[in-house]
Amino acid sequence: xxxxxxxxxxxxxxxxxxxxxxxxxxxxxxxxxxxxxxxxxxxxxxxxxxxxxxxxxxxxxxxxxxxxxxxxxxxxxxxxxxxxxxxxxxxxxxxxxxxxxxxxxxxxxxxxxxx
Length: 115
Ligand code: FES
Prior knowledge:
It contains two helices and seven strands, in the order βββαβαβββ. By secondary structure, it is of the alpha+beta class. The site of FE2/S2 (inorganic) cluster has 13 residues, from loops.
């Protein structure tokens, strides 16, 4: 089973930011696999259009599904927003994905991104 390690994870029983690892089913949506185990990332639509569930993939980019067209559009809008708010260096070179649309096929390390 793939492992998703979440930096600064907060769960119901542990509200202190830390790093936690969760085993998810191969091919499972990242958000669903984490939520099932009490690690509920920020979210809204759960359909790839609001961007609330954004995460940065710190390791294991090769172990996730490629983004769909709707996810790509949402991520492009998020990057434009970050660039406008914080400058282009803020997310330059980072891999941003939507956890509600990203399927996990192998080990990854992620961190939830703030808006
Ligand atoms: S919850 Fe809206 S894009 Fe994931």
